[in-house]
Design goal:
The chain is mainly α and 82 residues long. The chain has one domain (4-81): ACP-like (Non-ribosomal Peptide Synthetase Peptidyl Carrier Protein, Chain A, Orthogonal Bundle). The chain has helices at 4-19, 40-54, 69-81. Helix 1 (4-19) crosses helix 2 (40-54) and helix 1 crosses helix 3 (69-81).
Length: 82
């Protein structure tokens, strides 16, 4: 069974590799837009990468309220355990 920590680790790797972010800035409380400097185009790219990562269709609507790394982890966790 996948854990939230597993998802965080994978998400951190994704953010570092694809968005060239500093891994030390990535934690459950990190704000995607303020702390990590992602913009709306990055957010769309992130959803696409997460879809590839999870093998699950992710509706962009599900991510409209996502503001932190923790929110992303929670949404992915819901998809993977549903």
């Amino acid at each position: 069974m996948i854990t939230k920590q597993d998802i965080l680790t994978t998400l951190t790797d994704l953010l570092v590799d694809e968005f060239e972010l500093d891994a030390t800035k990535i934690n459950m409380d990190a704000q995607l837009y303020q702390d990590l400097d992602l913009d709306s185009i990055d957010a769309v790219d992130l959803v696409v990468k997460l879809r590839e990562m999870t093998g699950t269709k992710i509706e962009p609507e599900a991510f409209k309220q996502v503001r932190t790394v923790g929110h992303v982890v929670d949404e992915i966790y819901k998809l993977k355990t549903a």
